[in-house]
Amino acid sequence: MKKISIEYLKNEDYVDYIDGDLFIIEDVEKLPTIKMDAVEVEAIIVIFCTSGVGQVTMNGTRHQLKRNQLLLGMPHTIYSNYMKLTDNFDVKILGIATRALNSSVFMTKNIWKNFYFLLNNPVLDVNEDEVKLFTHYYELANMKIHSERSPFHQAIMMSLVHSVVFELLALTNKVESIEFEEEEQSSQSDVLFRNFLELLAEYEGRVRSVQEYADMLYVSPKYLSSVVKQLSGRTALALIHETTIHAIVRQLKYTNKPIKEISDEMKFPSLSFFGKFVKTQLGVSPKKFRKGG
Known about the structure:
Elements: E1 2-4, H1 6-9, E2 17-18, E3 22-25, E4 39-41, E5 44-51, E6 53-58, E7 61-66, E8 69-73, E9 77-84, E10 90-96, H2 111-120, E11 123-125, H3 128-145, H4 153-171, H5 188-203, H6 210-217, H7 221-232, H8 236-254, H9 259-265, H10 271-282, H11 286-290
Parallel strand pairs: 1-4
Antiparallel strand pairs: 2-3, 3-10, 4-9, 5-8, 5-10, 6-7, 6-9, 8-11
Helix pairs in contact: 3-4, 5-7, 6-7
């Protein structure tokens, strides 16, 4: 399975703009990687469908995308089985390095509720007014891309990207099941939750106890669990297990590694324990899951 980073894309001619923290692809027909079995993209990806109908599989889940819909993928998402369902299917793609958002976006209060919603609901409908708004952003960015570069060019582009990200997150306000607070200042709880999620991403499921994460964050397991539950609606252990099973699924589906090797890499004490964990989470054994059962 091929891993695609923004650094890797610097030498690819199908990328219309790239500056180290973000890239833009305007012509999806030129994009060869989507025809591969699976690629893991190490960036936040926003795909906006401008016409037609198509589909793409993200982390094993198939999503259909039609005109005036956005698809948002988190870092390390695995994309596969891209397919046009109509001849006029066309999209615009924006890629954003995670580090590019840390300074402002990730410090906003309750931002993780929005991101967790998008993680589980990656396709969003966009109405005509919102299409006009995003079109204006795109046209402005396109104008800057093709204008004479100033010393502040990259900072200007990143400011535009930050605005677009906040507009995307604002779309989740239309969903009645999410409650958002008015406060905008980051709290101690927000910082703790963000650091917890960063550790989850760093260890990719190889650390699986709330106690271990609490120790690394210098808080009690009870306090960490309370904060995670308050901000995400999920338990800390559930998020840990979710991260672990996503990592295992990637290995089982997209590598040929022996199951014992995967178990060892994921730091399970035994192959038997690994098998029980997978069966509890997926309903089938690792071997059966790999065979498509």
